[in-house]
Amino acid sequence: MNPIRLDASSYRTAEQLLRHNRGELVLNGSVRPRWLEDGVRFWYPTDTVGGPRFHLVDPVKGSRKPAFDHARLATALAAASGSEVDAAELPFGAFDVTGEAVEFDAFGARWRCALDDYTCVAVEGAPPRELLDVVAQDGRHAVFRQAYNIRARSLADRREWALTDDGSVDRDYGANPDYFMYSTLLGKLGIPHLPPAVLWSPDSRRVLTHRTDMRGVRETHLVDALPADGGPPMLRSQRFAHPGDERMPLAEFVVLDVESGKAVPALAEPVAMPMMSPISRRWAWWAEDGSAAYYLSSTRDMKTLSLHRLDPTSGEVRTVLNESGPTRVEPAQLLGQAPMVKVLSGGAEVLWYSQRDNWGHLYLYGTRDGELRAQVTSGQWAVQEVLHVDEERRVVYFLAAGLVEDDPYRRTVCRAGLDGTGFATVTDDDLDHVVTVAPGGDHFIDSASTNAAPPVITVRGWDGRERVALERTDASRLRATGWNPPERFRVTAADGETEIHGMLYLPHGFDPDERYPVVDHPYGFPSATRVVPCFDPGYYGYDAEALAALGFVVVAIDGRGAPGRDKAFHDHSYGRLGDAAGLADHVAALRELSRSRPWMDLDRVGVFGMSSGGFATVRAMLDFPEVFKAGVAECGVHDLRCAEQGVAEMYNGPFDAEKYAAASNVDIAHRLDGKLLLVHGGLDDSFAPHLTMRLVERLIAADKDFELLVVPSSDHAFVGYDHYLNRRRWDFLVRHVRGAEPPQGYRLTPVPMDAEAIAGLFG
Known about the structure:
By secondary structure, the protein is α+β, with helices and mostly antiparallel strands. The chain is built from 14 helices and 44 strands. The radius of gyration is 27 Å and the shape is globular.
C-alpha cells in the first residue's frame, strides 16, 4: 500500500507559522515603546488592516492618541518632496517628537512636519551613524573598533582619534571571544565584526571596556569550502577553549576618557570570560552618578560569584560582596538574563539575588561591611526579574514565578520593602506578565496573557492600576489557519514523585477518534526553558506550531534539570548533561499522557532539535530506541569534551574525563536503531561541524544507516538557508514518523535578511 501524499496546503500553513511569518497573523501582539526625551511619554506603531499606524502615549495624562494625521502628513510630505506618498505606507518607520512637530528621514533627507498646519520642510539631519559605532548618550561622540584598538569619533565634524594603541591579535580591545563574534554570519554581509563591547558613563565622558586576553587559548579550525571569491578552500582559524583547558579568554577592564585620551586600567586580576564579554553579558555597569563602575566575576568552577567596584579615576578595585555554594552560583537562572544585582543608596547598599534557600530570592547587604541587612523576599516561589527599586520609599518591584496555582512558570508583578516586610502582588490575576519599565521608573507597560489568551497591553502604575489601555491583540488570522493554543499539562517525572510540566500542540483539524504521530521537541542544555507561560510561543515554539500543521502532536517538556523553578530542580542536571535535562522524564510523560489520550500513537514517535536540542535528539534515540523511532538533529553538540568551555563547565561541572564521556553521543553511537537525519553548518563557529563528524565516524564504524546534510557555508543558525532546512526537516519527519509523502515539488520562500537586520540582532 502506497503512503498518502500530503496536500501542499499543509506545508503552506506550516510556513505561515514560522517565526518570520507568524507576526503577520497576530496583530499588535506586542508594544515596543520608543521613549521620548522626558522618559515618560512614548510612541509606538501598530498594524491595522489599513496599514501601520503610530500612536503617542502620555501615561501622566492617561492619554493615547494618533501621533499625527497620517493622511495630512502624507499630503504635506508629497507636496514638499515632490514624491508620491501613500498614507497607508508612509516612507519612514521612526520619528522624533520636537515640540509640536515630528521629524523623520525620508527620500534621502530629513524632514520636519509641524502638526498645527501640516507643513513639511527639509531640515539638517543628524550626522550619519556608522553601523559599528557605539554612540554616547549625549550624541556627541561614538567609539568603534579598528585594528584591535578602540577609537573615538566626533559626530559633529567626523574627527577621529585613538583611545588605545597597544591592542594586538591576542589582546584585542572590546572584543568578545572568537566564537561569539559571529564571523561567519557577519562576513556574508561584509560586516567585519561586532561593535565593541563598551559602556558609556552617564555623563558621556568615559567608556568602560576591556582588553580581551586570548594568549594561549586553544586554536581550532574550519574549512571554507566555497570562499566568496570563488577560489580554492580556505582555512579559518579561531581560538576556542575546550572543557578542562588551562587557558581561557580573560577580560582586563579599563576605563577610557574620551576627550583626554587617558586610559585607566583596573588594578585587579583579569576576569574569566569563558562565554562572552562581561559587558555583552550585562555583568558590568556604571553607577547612576558615574562615580564608579561595577562588575561581577565568577571562579572557574562557577561556585563563587563576586561583585567588584572599580574607581574610574584611580583604577582601584574593591570586592564588595561574594557568595559561594556547592554548585554554580548565578545572578539569575537563565543564561542570557541580566543579573539581579542592584547597587543602591549611592553605593552603600546592594540588592543581591541568591538561591541559597533553594528558591531565587533577594537579599539586602551593606557594601562597607558586607553584612546582611535583610532577606527581602522569601517563600516557595522564585524572583525572575528585578523591575524597579524606589529608593525613596524603600520598595523593590519584581517579577516572580510560582505564585499562580498550578503553573510554576507564570510571572506576577510583586513588591516588597527592602527591609523584608510588605510583600504584595501588584498584578492580582492568574495571567503571565511581560513588563517593560519606563526609563524614569514611574510606570510600566504590562503585557498580560496565557498560552490561550492573547495579550492585553496596558500602562500601569506601581499600584497596579491601569493608566492607559494600549492594545488587545487580534489573533483571528492565526486561528483561521487552523491553529489552536497548546494544551498545558502536568505529569509525574521518571522518579515517580516530581511534578513536571509541558505543552501539547495538537494537529490542525484534530479529531479525538483518530490516531496521530507524536514528535518531541527538546532542548538539551539547562540554560533555557521549553515551557513558555505566555501567548508568544518562544524561539523554539514556532517550529512546534509549524509541525502541528503537518498533522503531528508536538510535545514540549521541561524535565528535571531545566531552569525556571527551584534550584534543586535545576541542579538535577548539574554534572549529568548526558540526561539532556530529563529525557527519562520525557519518556515518562509520553507514556502517562497516552493513557488518557489514546489519540497519541506511541508507535510513531519522532524527535527533533537544534544545538543542544540536536544533542538531545540523538541522545533520545540512543537511550530510548524503543520510544523514539526517527529524529532530525541540527548542529548538535554531540561530544561535550569538544564543546564551548564556559557552558560545558557551568552545567556539567569541572572537567572530569569519565563524567564528560558520559555526556557524549559519540561513545554510544552503536546504539542507533531508528531513522536519523544529521544536519550541520560547515562554517558553524559556535559549535563546529566536527561535533557532528565525530558522531558520523562512529556511526559508520558501527555500520549504521543514517542521513547527513552539511550546509558548507552555513553558520550555527542556518541564516539564509532556513527555507531549505525547514523543508528537509518536515519531509524527513513526514516520511519516517507520519508515514506519508511530502507534497510534490513544494518549496518554501527564502527568508530575507540584510545587514541592518543582522546588526539589529546584536543591539
